[in-house]
Design brief:
By secondary structure, this protein is mainly alpha-helical. Helices cover about 70% and strands about 0% of the residues. The longest helix is centred in the last third of the chain and has 31 residues, at about 365-395.
């Protein structure tokens, strides 16, 4: 019913006039929401990693099509039709493989035994607090050597993400005391504020969505007030973000210390209020324009293959290298080279040096289309369907701190990262898995069962 109302509302309010494109937009919404609807009807306790991944199709592709912001409305109906067909091709391939592929629950100890005793779940708040302290230390002090920065970041963010997820699951099942709830809320709020203070809103928003999804999957209740306030704050700050970046992302920009945070956010609020007063668009429209991946897909569909050939897998060639530790290959190609190649090829920047200075979201469907066209979208969708179905069935009976449980938490978190290229998505997921599985294994080896 909610999906029908949502689709009807978008059709009623859209400036899109082509009935075929409107039908395709409604189809995107339905296909995106279908797995989540089935998951809710079955009242499953299993983490909805696949369902969340599919839901990202609504804000990143369906809403931008209906919203017709300038970056989308610029294109002809033929180009939008091709881009919409690409999205639907990806969605149908993903759903077909996921729902048609059989699977069986894992029976080995790898999936059924916890890496640490269940009693350790009570101490997850310690890991959450340690992550808060690390984040403060990394952002506002010079205590962590530069050469160890990436290692520390992977370790502590991985631990913090897992602990936050476990704690919100316990909160959702009423296993936290009032004092523990206050402690968890303060730590998560502090981490989100520090993430936002870097002017990368997506990182803080992802953490907020992760804890909301964790709580909802455990309690079967959506924290509507928290979600509305959170989305409203991020939408408001987004309006003034560009003005802040022009000040604090320039060479010689003033540093933002802990003592400067009140003035920093006061300045940001002022910029947002001014930008909001000068703009005819609402905050929701501006936020949708920023999160849109549909217009990037339109850019690819407009030029490929009519004016440029497909890349034939060029952005995928460095994926195997990401599994080799840099300790053994000091100059191995980084995962972001795929993003740089797409930025240059689609005309966003003039060369790869310039691509290193900007942040452009492409998403794996756009990358697949640029490389192999509609065949690439079918293969990508099939790969996602296979990956999520395989782990969904293998980990059906896995406790939270087993290998399977940790993998599902990671897939849940990474299902929100719709803006990444495949190389970045795989490499970051792999690094987090090594940390989150390796740390408990190390503790188990050092201190015994």
């Amino acid at each position: 019913m909610g999906v029908a109302l949502l689709g009807g509302y978008r059709v009623y309010t859209t400036e899109l006039e082509d009935p075929v494109l409107m039908s395709m937009g409604v189809g995107m919404i339905v296909l995106s929401a279908l797995p989540a609807i089935l998951w809710a009807r079955r009242s499953e306790r299993q983490l909805p990693a696949f369902e969340v991944m599919m839901l990202t199709g609504i804000p990143f592709y369906a809403f931008p099509l209906f919203d017709q912001n300038p970056s989308v409305a610029f294109f002809s109906n033929d180009v939008m039709l091709r881009a919409a067909t690409a999205v639907l091709t990806f969605q149908v391939a993903t759903l077909a493989v996921y729902f048609l592929l059989p699977g069986h629950a894992g029976r080995s100890s790898l999936w059924r035994q916890s890496l640490l005793p269940d009693s350790y779940l009570r101490h997850s708040r310690v890991g959450l607090a340690i992550t808060t302290v690390y984040q403060f230390t990394a952002q506002y002090t010079d205590l962590i050597p530069y050469e160890l920065g990436s290692v520390f970041r992977a370790v502590f963010y991985g631990i913090g993400m897992l602990c936050a997820f476990i704690l919100m699951q316990r909160w959702g099942t009423d296993l936290l005391s009032p004092g523990e709830k206050v402690f968890v809320a303060l730590n998560i709020a502090a981490q989100i504020i520090m993430h936002v203070a870097t002017l990368y809103l997506i990182v803080g928003a992802s953490l907020l969505l992760l804890v909301v999804i964790s709580y909802t999957s455990a309690s079967r209740r959506l924290p509507i007030a928290t979600l509305i306030i959170g989305v409203g704050v991020f939408a408001f700050l987004h309006v003034g973000k560009d003005a802040m970046r022009k000040i604090y992302w320039q060479p010689g920009a003033p540093s933002v210390g802990l003592a400067n945070l009140p003035n920093f956010f006061s300045e940001w609020i002022t910029f947002s209020l001014v930008a909001r007063a000068e703009s005819d668009e609402g905050m929701a429209s501006k936020l949708l324009e920023r999160t849109s991946l549909f217009h990037v897909l339109c850019i690819a569909a407009d030029s490929i293959p009519s004016r440029q050939p497909h890349l034939d897998g060029e952005t995928y060639v460095n994926i195997p290298a990401q599994f080799v530790p840099r300790l053994f290959w000091s100059d191995k190609p980084g995962p972001h080279k795929s993003n740089s190649r797409l930025a240059v090829y689609l005309g966003f920047v003039v060369d790869e040096d310039a691509a290193q200075k900007v942040s452009i979201a492409f998403g794996t469907p756009c990358e697949a289309y640029v490389n192999f066209g509609f065949v690439g979208l079918v293969l990508l969708g099939g790969g996602y369907g296979l990956l999520f179905k395989r782990f969904a069935t293998l980990t059906a009976a896995s406790p939270p701190l087993s290998v399977g449980g940790v993998i599902m938490v990671l897939l849940m978190a990474w299902s929100l990262q719709a803006e990444m290229t495949l190389s970045v998505w795989i490499s970051s997921l792999y690094q987090a898995a090594v940390v989150l599985i390796g740390v408990p294994v190390g503790i188990k080896v050092l201190f015994g069962r």
